[in-house]
Amino acid sequence: MRGWLRAKARAKDLFDRLGGRRHRRWMVLGLTAVLVALLVAVFVRREVMIAGLRRQIAQLEARQAEAAAAEKTLRAELASTRDDATLERAIRERLGLVRPNEEKAFFVEEPSP
């Protein structure tokens, strides 16, 4: 208990030397302002981080929707390749193949005079 009383007396002497009650009020007010500013800075930083994370979530959800649409298209294409007629038609169109008894004709447009 004596140590606490001595520390309190030393603090009071220090405040008295620095200007007494008036100076102590300004010091408490300044320290309070600094504390409030720090708390505001922490909360503002958090809100900025949360906004950034929300933006990332929106971007990832958009990419996920695009990937789901591409998957649906690819699954439909895969399902269509299981049908022999569709597969043969696709091969003939892409590679330009013909059956042994068929002939392929090419039409060349002449430039107009």
Can you walk through the features of this model?
- 81% of the residues lie in helices and 0% in strands.
- Helix 1 crosses helix 2 (20-81).
- By secondary structure, the chain is mainly alpha-helical.
- It contains 3 helices and no strands.
- The protein has one domain (7-95).
Task: Report the β-strand fraction as a percent range.
Answer: under 5%
Nearest-angstrom radius of gyration?
40 Å
Number of strands: 0
Low-confidence segments, given as residue ranges, are none
Major β-sheet annotation:
none
Which class best fits the helix and strand makeup? Answer: mainly alpha
Termini separation comes to 114 Å
Assign a percent range to the helix content. Answer: over 70%
Form type: rod-shaped
Number of domains: 1
Average of pLDDT = 85
Order of helices and strands: HHH
Please report the number of helical segments.
3
